[in-house]
Amino acid sequence: MQQVADDTYRLGTKGHNFYIVEDGGQATVIDAGCRREWSKLESGLESLGVSLESVAGIVATHSHADHYGFAKEAIDNGLAVSVHEDEETRADGTYRGRYSASASDLPVFNLNALRTFLPMILAGVLKLDHVAPTNTFTDGAQLDVPGNPIAVHTPGHTEGHTMFHLPDKGLLFTGDGLITMDLIGPARGPQMIEKRFNLDDDKAFASLDRIVDLDANLLLPGHGEPWSGSPADAVAIARS
Question: Which of 58, 60, 65, 223 has its CA 20 to 30 A from that of 131?
Answer without folding.
Answer: 223
